[in-house]
Amino acid sequence: MKNVFTLLFLILFRLKLFYIVHLSAFTIPNFKVTVRLIVIFIFLTIHVDLLSQSKKTIKQTRILFVFDASKSMVSKYQNSTRMDGAKNLFYRFIDSLSKDKNMQFALRMYGHTVKYPPGNCKDSKLIVPFEKNNTNTIKQKVSEAKPTGITPIEHSLTEAANDFKDNRSNNIVILITDGIEECGGDPCKARQKLMEKGIVFKPFIIGIGLTAEQVKTFECVGSFYDFNDNSTFSAITTIIQQQKLNKTTAQVNLLDNSSMPSETNVNTTFYDVKRSEYKYNFLHTLNYVGNPDTLYMDDYPTYKVVAQTIPPVSSKEINLSVGKHTIIPIDAPQGYLSFKRNEGAYNFNEKVKCIVRKTNDLNTLNVQRLNSTEKYIIGNYDIEILTLPRIYLNQNTIEQSKTTVLEIQNAGLLQIKCLEAGDGCILVKTADRLEWVCNISNQTMQTFYLQPGNYVATWRAKNLKGSIYTIEKKFTITPDSQTTVEFYR
Length: 489
What we know:
Elements: H1 2-27, H2 33-54, E1 61-68, E2 76-77, E3 80-81, H3 82-97, E4 103-110, E5 124-131, H4 135-144, H5 153-160, E6 170-177, H6 187-196, E7 204-207, H7 212-216, E8 223-226, H8 232-241, E9 249-255, E10 267-272, E11 277-283, E12 295-296, E13 302-307, E14 313-314, E15 318-319, E16 325-331, E17 334-340, E18 353-358, E19 364-369, E20 372-377, E21 379-385, E22 391-398, E23 403-407, E24 412-418, E25 422-430, E26 433-440, E27 445-450, E28 453-461, E29 471-477, E30 482-487
Parallel strand pairs: 1-4, 1-6, 6-7, 7-8, 9-16, 17-23, 24-30
Antiparallel strand pairs: 2-3, 4-5, 9-12, 10-11, 10-13, 13-14, 13-15, 17-20, 18-19, 18-21, 21-22, 24-27, 25-26, 25-28, 28-29
Helix pairs in contact: 1-2, 3-4, 3-8, 5-6
């Protein structure tokens, strides 16, 4: 419909220009006829180009056949062998699908070169790569195949991911096999490699004579079809020919406190619940129109998504539907916490850190520096600032999209001079109490950055063993100023 309106607009626009050109020819004496021809040519070119663009482009489909040529395929099956049955089914597939000129095919085979025993777990090879008009070559290679080796399924599927040139096409794998992994591999691990190459559907697994237990080993790999099921051929070809290969996608909606998906720029980790391991990390993004970005996902696992906010928040368990788009909501309303301190004479040397905890929770959520801003899930937080003495600020509320600013006074510089080594400490006056701040070491010259306030320092020379030799000094610290305390016998 959009293209129709565009064409109508161009036609009307061209007619108007013709009118202008004709009018110019009568009003401007030296106006040449060639100008008319140039204008007509330009608009005819635009018209043809638009018509060509209006044709719907059909996405190319690439199908990789992974063919089992291991020794077990010589076993008798029904009135023939498993190998003959697999070949006949393969011929039906490629003859039917090759009628669509928008499809390309390739052939990978495993277990076909190294005799078993002992076999070779790397015995897997791309026999015919993707190219046009190669179906006869593929059929010839399959007809020549003789079962001889072992079954390296994970290795074959992992290597199959490299057989596709790119992920711009509908990339499909059809695996025809009679066995299970014989090389200690895990076929499930191959799924990730296939996803990275844009395999939009799980591989079609066609099993010949597999038991129910053997079938289960393929659940995480692809969609399983039984060789004996009369509908197997028609089901797979129908899916492919009708182009029902919509990618399985998801989007994570990080919701603010109005349940709008406005939060973003947070890492999201996707966990496979059953395997208790993570599968993906995505830095959450809002696209150019302000919507959460679309993610292309493997539909097999049950997922749980953790948004790495401070503190982390997570989704419920999520099951994706094949070929469908799933929205994953996570409540993640956030605001900002900012620590401010003016630039002072001594502050640049003081690397102060601030510990952030949920109110009434001793677990440390984050360690933030002064003069920095960080996002947190909305709520109440307790702050411990590692100045001397420490500053405790409790019940600080962070609100949606707002910044809570905590301003810290500038420190002052205390210099302590001693004639010899000794022991001592610094105490701060708070109301009617003295509270310990830090100890004085054995050095004769020491520097401390202290918050403004009234202090007491005590010291005794190390070689004097009586408490009576304790010296006490009272002093006041003011912002951006230096105070010197000297201890002598």
